[in-house]
Amino acid sequence: MGTPLLPDRALLETLRVVLQTAATCLQEDYEQDPNPTRLLQSRARIVDFVLSDLWQMCGLPAELTLVAVGGYGRRELYPYSDVDILVLLPTDEVEDDVRQRIEGYIGCLWDLGLDIGHSVRSVDECMRESALDVTVQTNLIESRRLTGSLPLYREFLRRLFVEFNPESFFHAKSAEQEQRYNRFNQTPYALEPNCKESPGGLRDLQVIIWLTLSAGLGTRWSDLARHGLITRDEARELRTCERFMQHVRIRLHYIARRREDRLIFDVQETLAKAFSLEATKAKRASEVMMQRYYRVAKKITQLNGLLLQNIAQRYAPPALSNVRAVDEDFQICGELLDIVDDDVFERHPGAMLKAYLHMQQQSGVKGMSARTLRGLWRGRKLINAAFRRDPENRSTFLAIFQQTRGQTHELRRMNQYETLGSYLPAFGRIVGQMQHDLFHVYTVDQHILQVLRNVRRFALEEHGHEYPLMTRLMAEFERPWVLYIAALFHDIAKGRGGDHSTLGMSDARRFGRDHGMLKEDVDLIVWLVEQHLAMSQVAQKQDLTDPDVIRQFAARAGTERRLTALYLLTHADIRGTSPKVWNGWKGKLLEDLFMASRQLLRGDTPQLALGLDERREQIRERLRFYGLMPDVENDLWSDLDTVYFLRHDIEEVAWHTRMLYHRPHGDEPIVKARPSPVEKGLQIMVYTRDQKDLFMRLCAYFARLGYTILDAKIHTTTKGYALDSFVVMDPGQETDYRDVIGLIEHDLTERLRSEARIDAPTSGRVSRQIKHFPITPAVTLQPDERGQHFILSIVAADRPGLLYSVARTLAEHGVEVHTAKIITLGERAEDTFLVSSRNLDNSGKTVQLEAALLERLRV
């Protein structure tokens, strides 16, 4: 075994000086004539030279290849960026001498002061890793040979693109972008955004290039215009946005003297000076800088959305037969809302608001077509005073808040395309406005939309496990949409000078009067805007054990409806400031204040904190009716948490209790079935010590019987028992369910007792309707507010065994199901699962799970 040839220290020091001198010259040249492309490419060329020379000096074998990958591979090397390289091997087996030479070479690169990201793989290993990890695949498609074996590199490229699937790559990168957006709370408007990774940052532009490169559509913005994906004006806008973001990142690196991609408060003023921006009478220089940044980020997210949509249609163009009319201005094209012609909004400006309303009302629509979005952006200037006075437009705008779904998505879209700020000029004034305090991490407009999202979540059952009391209160609240409007106006007057709560009252009152709202609702909204800070201030700063404090606060609220509304808004407001601001202590203080004040307003009637007192009493009455002695339910109920009682109706809890009260902690599985009291079908309860992959095995069992699962409620007691409920139905409608109850109870009990394997069912047939009108499957996976669980939502064509396919995929990826809500709308399944797994903290694993689910869901 030979000793690796390594350059002496003097030579390494010379190369180090060369790199440092070149870096200084590049910075001086950039300061005199800021040209980001020249800087990035020049640094890449200098590093190319050093890496290639050092490769020869270290005596690396001729059959190896040195490859630049990632950003370095596309010749974009920022001042302090890491240098990603791949050492390509001819075989998986590496001799010790060669491995030592490679290690020595990498060590020399670190000695030069380069931040090296390296991998050492054979072509076969590259292909295997590429198939498993879309990030690796992305790095490889941007590869560039630096030195070494050209035949080996050509073989690598041949294998890479032979095994490459552009459509799968598109879906994986789209899912990866969605996960990245989730990490940044779906907004580019954080007060300290990341110019590389945040929505609207450089990564959004790179995603476009990766996808167009993989689809053979070019790598320049002009190429995209030539292929009809964007207009020439949009191509110029993209280049302008890209140059701005490149300047931002370059200057951040120079200011921090290290790799820094966050526009943290510490550098914003310096960054503004680097861009020659000055303060105005109303704004600091840093605020001027950040508003420019937000405008560019908004434009990037708009164009990113347009391009992803246009690329998607290349893979799955909508069939002419799959177009249906909505009204005279709109049609559904595939799964997108489309305007019937390009000048719809010029002819009927009010149709802009109706576009958002249609998105809420039309089931199965996943987005707006590119020309609809372009039309909304161009048409925003048509929203003037006459538009705002039009009674039909006012009615449409109010209707957007009153729908059963889609408020969060559509109001965000309205803000993205400036419809919201154009219709409500008061809102337009706070778009991109920063908040310099210790807890808000979003601009004012984004904070408002976060608060509105939080209030909306209280009304959604799938989030009931996060805040069960809020969900219960919201369900009982008359006209809950009033709270969405209160959320929209609560901070709308920030930045005007004076008390924004008082100033916002006038805006809210005018809005309510102009839109013909009930006086009691207008009064409530105005009061909430005025008092939206009061509850948190009392809860956190005053003594809640002092009866006078509670009495004064209850008197301020006056009615239980006002108190409940303020509690819901306050809870949502605090959570909407920053993911780090909310904690259990604040929640407990607010809850204590709410409960004490509510007791006082109810005349001191004792109530349990979560409003379950009457509910439990009703269940106990039902148990007495069935002849059970008082208190026999206590042992079982002590193992069941609040979420269980909220998710199961009174009759269901009574049935479970009757079946289980006398053996809550036994070792034997208990399976009970009965005809469903709600609809035709069979209701089945399973109670057993929790077992590995239990949910998947139960789904497999019902699928083998040929049953469709209409509803599933998965619950685990505090003592580690699974208490699962299913409603199943024979899709052929041929079963007399009473005849199979005994068989199912005996057979399933035996299988659970022995933990015997339940064979996978055969794939079920899809209906003819699905074959002719396919439903594109969709998978979304988002963390809940607590960060302990994830909410998995799927949309797919319904078929026998569908739930088993989902359960099996989750089990294969080590994901545990806690609850499941199954909804079947005709041929369309919309299922929601509360899941957890350590793997879900890894974005690569999450993307793999989503890809696997999509593959299983495709018909």
Question: In words, what does this structure look like?
Answer:
This protein is of the alpha+beta class and 859 residues long. The chain has four domains: 9-164, Beta Polymerase, domain 2 (2-Layer Sandwich); 173-383, Nucleotidyltransferases  domain 2 (Four Helix Bundle (Hemerythrin (Met), subunit A)); 424-601; 768-857, Alpha-Beta Plaits (2-Layer Sandwich), CATH 3.30.70.260. The chain contains 39 helices and 16 strands. The strands form four sheets. Strands 3-2-1-4 form a four-stranded mixed beta sheet, with helices on both faces. Strands 5-6-7-8 form a four-stranded mixed beta sheet. A hairpin with a 2-residue loop joins strand 6 and strand 7. It is globular, with a radius of gyration of 31 Å.
Task: State the main characteristics.
859 residues, Beta Polymerase, domain 2, Four Helix Bundle (Hemerythrin (Met), subunit A), 4 domains, 4-stranded mixed β-sheet, nucleotidyltransferase activity, NT_sf
Q: What is the 3D shape?
A: globular
Contiguous runs where pLDDT drops below 50 for at least 5 residues:
605-611
Write down the CATH topology of the largest domain: Four Helix Bundle (Hemerythrin (Met), subunit A)
Number of domains: 4
**What structural class do the secondary elements suggest?**
alpha+beta
* CATH homologous superfamily (4th level) name of the largest domain: Nucleotidyltransferases  domain 2
